[in-house]
Design goal:
Chain B: One of its GO terms (molecular function) is DNA binding. The complex is a heterodimer of chains A (144) and B (64). With 144 residues, chain A is mostly helical. Helices cover 77% and strands 0% of the residues of chain A. Chain A contains 5 helices and no strands. The two termini of chain A are 28 Å apart. The chains are: A mainly alpha (144), B mainly alpha (64).
């Protein structure tokens, strides 16, 4: 039996082409979201001198891009196969858990006078990203 | 759980990529199943059984 004949058992789009398309979509919307976030962060000061209407429009655009990115990520996860979904789930569990534990204590360290600086909440995004990446690496190795 | 994925694939002279395409999963999943590091879902097990024209019990055996 050839691969083509075997593929007849699975009607519809193949997993490879779905993954390719979903990855492109995810990259596109993540890129657009990042650009719109940069515009929200730097535009008011450097491009339009804090004009409220323009700033509000940029914020709305950023939220729309964020929504599209979330949906693209959801679709990407949905179309992965069962092992890949498990790898993502394990990585997300690690990322969420560590972010919650460290995020909670990070928010308290100034109040309990362990540090003198004010903790920046956006630092938690880096923790999430790094732990997610490490989680994917660990889980991928586990099943390799 | 033990399985005969590797033997059955070799008997048919299929590559891991061929089997992955036929079952609509990634090659990574085939590797993990063959090495016994991942037990597939019931639906994937039935799909494999159909592809190999065997029963699920002929492919997968519970370890004592």
């Amino acid at each position: 039996m050839t691969t083509q004949e075997m593929n007849k058992n699975t009607p519809g789009e193949s997993m490879k082409s779905k993954t390719r398309r979903n990855t492109k979509q995810l990259a596109l919307w993540t890129g657009l979201w990042l650009v719109s976030l940069a515009l929200v962060a730097f535009g008011p000061k450097f491009l339009w001198d804090f004009h409220t209407v323009v700033t509000v429009c940029t914020v709305i655009t950023n939220l729309v891009m964020g929504y599209k990115m979330i949906m693209a990520n959801k679709q990407h996860l949905q179309d992965l196969d069962e092992l890949q979904q498990r790898i993502q789930l394990e990585a997300m569990a690690l990322s969420l858990g560590i972010s919650m534990v460290f995020g909670a204590i990070f928010g308290l360290i100034e109040g309990i006078r362990l540090v003198t600086f004010s903790p920046n909440p956006s630092a938690i995004l880096f923790v999430m990203g790094i732990t997610y990446f490490v989680g994917v690496l660990f889980s991928t190795r586990k099943y390799a | 759980m033990k399985n005969r994925f590797k033997v059955l694939r070799a008997e048919r002279d299929w590559t891991q990529a061929d089997l992955a395409d036929a079952l609509d999963v990634s090659r990574q999943t085939i590797i993990a199943i063959e090495k016994g590091k991942y037990d597939p879902s019931l639906s994937l097990a039935f799909k494999a059984a159909k592809l190999f024209s065997m029963t699920v019990e002929d492919i997968f055996q519970a370890e004592e």
